Amino acid sequence: MSALQAPAPPPLPAPLDALLRRLRLPTLRRTAPEVLATARAQRWEPAEVLRVLLEAEVGGRDRSALATRRAVAGFPTGKTFAAWKPHLSAIPLPTQQALQTLEWVGRHENLVVCGPSGTGKTFFLEALGQAAVEAGRRVAWFSLEGLGLLVRRHRADDSVTKAVRAILRADLVVVDDIGLLPVSPDAAEGFYRLVDAAYERRSVAVSSNLHPAAFDELMPKTLATATVDRLLHHAHVCVTSGDSVRLAQATAGHGVVPLALPATARPPASPTTRPTSPRTTGTTGTTGTTGTTEGTHHG
């Protein structure tokens, strides 16, 4: 016998529903019928009813704001510290833990993570960015190529400075994978403009295959010197090392989920052996077939 379902609570009166819509309290309006029905049944105090409803609205707004900050940040994959394996990183564990407090973001300090490809630089920065978003901070994620596109797009109307200022509405700006590709003049300019505008005002986190001291291999020496000077003045520098974690996982066969054949592609089961049928004799003619099987006649 199926369990009886509880009756749905009565809807809010139309005037009250209209007021909540006008005040833009969607979560409160959605949860109010059930909360009010529970309050009547359990004889809650009016203040308790108000507290529960307001807490529901605040929780709904917090979830909506978190989703918006995460979408605006533009993270590449969505990786968080839930999947991070600290022991696989060359960054000392105390340093990892200290950076995860995000106190350096509050002090407008920078972070540089440099080292060979596949040593967890981007993963670590994205996990830090996700933690910052969950802590209520705003994050912006860029590549050098993205900064170059921004400069080209806004140079026509001389609004590059305004565009960089808009980026710095974020508390933390991440520039990922410096050193993998040649740096165009526009990208070099965009990177310098960002670091210069953020200096002692916002935090910039960078991942790079090269130490910043070698950035003059990627961009003009004068521009590289000015950029690195501002970037490193208040920066934590973490150097990764070792073999590529991705390559090690791939070599060990841990980079993919083992393939499974769909049911329609599986080999057929062996047929069941059946008893040999009795011998049948017959004569086939143009008008029909006559045969006998152990004395039985088929006409």
Describe this structure in words.
With 299 residues, the chain is of the alpha/beta class. It has two domains: 60 residues, no CATH class; 165 residues, P-loop containing nucleotide triphosphate hydrolases (Rossmann fold), CATH 3.40.50. The chain has eleven helices and eight strands. β6 and β7 form a beta hairpin. α2 packs antiparallel against α3, α3 runs antiparallel to α6 and α8 crosses α9. The longest helix is centred in the first third of the chain and has 28 residues. The chain starts with 13 loop residues before the first helix and ends with a strand. The C terminus is likely disordered.
Summarize the structure.
With 299 residues, the protein is an alpha/beta fold. It has 11 helices and 8 strands. The chain has helices spanning 14-22, 26-42, 46-73, 93-100, 103-106, 121-134, 144-155, 160-167, 185-198, 221-233, 245-251; strands at 110-114, 139-143, 172-178, 203-208, 235-239, 281-284, 289-293, 296-298.
